[in-house]
Amino acid sequence: MKKQAIKCKRCGSTVFSRARHDFRWCSCNLVAIDGGNNYTRTAGDPENFKSIQLDIEQTKKELYDDWNTNADKYGLIKGKYVSCPQCGGTGEYFSEMMARYDDHGVKCNRCDGKGIVKDWNKDG
């Protein structure tokens, strides 16, 4: 089956929506896709993703059930993780830490986007 998807230019993740109301973010939460097989709606600056078409083996029912039961086996193909431009944090740790937002997008929780790494044991 063919599925409309987007590939994030920051984290390299490919995401597609499994069902009508399945709003899916990429690994770094920069771009998202929604709509399943009914429509395609994207979120995020179009400069930050590339639209692609995937050929997947799963049926519509398998995708719907995956979404409806929160199994989350499908819909996100993780790409390479990127490093923080401020502190240089890399790999899975940095990707997991990219959870805070400000007016400029995602910030690294490790250094708060300032390049100064917080000591979690000392600073709480």
TrEMBL record:
SUPFAM superfamilies reported for this sequence: DnaJ/Hsp40 cysteine-rich domain (SSF57938)
Domain DUF7695: 3-45
InterPro entries, A to Z: DUF7695, HSP_DnaJ_Cys-rich_dom_sf
Pfam families for this protein: DUF7695
Designated name of the protein: Putative chaperone
Lineage: unclassified sequences, metagenomes, organismal metagenomes
